[in-house]
TrEMBL record:
UniProt xrefs under Pfam families: ABC_tran
Annotated membrane topology: Peripheral membrane protein
Record has Membrane as a keyword: yes
Species the sequence originates in: Streptomyces glaucus
Gene3D superfamilies found in the cross-reference section: P-loop containing nucleotide triphosphate hydrolases (3.40.50.300)
Superkingdom per UniProt: Bacteria
Extent of the signal sequence: none
GO MF term (any one): ATP binding
UniProtKB keywords: Amino-acid transport, ATP-binding, Cell membrane, Membrane, Nucleotide-binding, Transport
UniProt-recorded name of the protein: Ectoine/hydroxyectoine ABC transporter ATP-binding protein EhuA
Length: 256
């Protein structure tokens, strides 16, 4: 059974909101007056052709890049525009897993997961390790906590990266094509872990993925992007079985 994903009393139902967000690189408009929101506890998947602006949205939420226009709100607070000090606080609510796992190569698996909770959140090392051990169990890597990233497969490294993101107890987990850099035989293990997290926790997920089966399984809502705009949005059974927009139909027939 999925856990109850209703927001706690007093928490806004809407965890992430983009209003009229425009992002340009040079004279190219990558996101064009984009509006959308994600409710707490929901799993939203962004699909669409390469270059349609999906990753840019995740990067905006991670404050790795800034919009040219518009407003971004997280958990009822403005992330953009906002003073730098507030941004640092709001960012703690957001975790991200990248295509390339970006683990610290010189640290053990355990240390990769405990480092930020200790240095950024101020947890004691014992508390951080206890949480890290729970998370390593969740991602099926309890045996590997003393290894360095290079001793693990790509799929295992990505599962460490997922545990590392969750260790910060984010309210929103951003997943950017997390299986794209993996050998095909390692993809299923990572997707299974994410399915499990989607089922067993109340975390809000925003995923960019080319894995349509996975998108269908975990999503409450699928957003189809084209040229920086959402051309169609709906539950997965609708988007994958009865797409209405011709760009959605073209995209799905190319990837399925
Ligand atoms: P998607 O995730 O849908 O493949 P992206 O958000 O990665 O699309 O990219 C959208 C467009 O923005 C692409 O044309 C890409 O080349 C361009 N782009 C992304 N980041 C940069 C950057 N830092 N500088 C210039 N162009 C960029």
């Amino acid at each position: 059974m999925p856990t109850d994903t209703r927001p706690a009393p007093g928490r806004p139902a809407e965890l992430v909101r983009l209003e009229q967000v425009t992002k340009r690189f040079g004279d190219r408009t990558v996101l064009d007056r984009l509006d959308f929101s994600v409710d707490a506890g929901r799993h939203v998947t962004l699909i669409g052709p390469s270059g349609s602006g999906k990753t840019t949205i995740l990067r905006l939420l991670m404050t790795l890049t800034e919009p040219d226009e518009g407003r971004i709100t997280v958990d009822g607070e403005l992330l953009f525009p906002a003073p730098e000090k507030r941004v640092r606080e709001i960012r703690k609510k957001i975790g991200m897993v990248f295509q390339q796992f970006n683990l610290f190569p010189n640290m053990t698996v355990l240390r990769n997961i405990t480092e930020a909770p200790v240095t950024v959140l101020g947890l004691s090392r014992d508390a951080a390790e206890e949480r890290a051990r729970e998370l390593l169990e969740l991602v099926g890597l309890s045996e590997h906590l003393d290894k360095r990233p290079a001793q693990l497969s790509g799929g295992q490294q990505q599962r460490v990266a997922i545990a590392r993101a969750l260790a910060m107890r984010p309210q929103v987990l951003l997943l950017d094509e997390v299986t794209s850099a993996l050998d095909p035989e390692l993809v299923a293990g990572v997707l299974d872990v994410l399915r499990d997290i989607a089922r067993s926790t109340d975390i809000t997920m925003l995923c960019v993925t080319h894995e349509m089966g996975f998108a269908r399984d975990i999503s409450d809502q699928v957003l189809m992007f084209d040229a920086g705009r959402v051309v169609e949005a709906g539950p997965p059974e609708k988007i994958f079985s009865e797409p209405e927009h011709h760009r959605t139909r073209e995209f799905l027939s190319a990837v399925l």
